[in-house]
Prior knowledge:
The chain is of the alpha+beta class. It has helices spanning 53-62, 64-70; strands at 13-18, 24-29, 33-40, 45-52.
Amino acid sequence: xxxxxxxxxxxxxxxxxxxxxxxxxxxxxxxxxxxxxxxxxxxxxxxxxxxxxxxxxxxxxxxxxxxxxxxxxxxxxxxxxxxxxxxxxx
Length: 90
């Protein structure tokens, strides 16, 4: 899975490292993403999400579902549709 935050959608950025002599070389800025278990009170279950440390602060203030909705994300990321088993025919 990519290094991407579920709440904010932040991912790895690319750009140039510029030296004192103004030489440019490609480099990456990686997001500080941690895997965290968060309890969803509405569904009474634990969910494991990859979230940036910056978004963790927002989570403590707003809660997971509201933080995702405010950033224009989909709740399907944290709560995928449940798989149903095909009914067996006798």
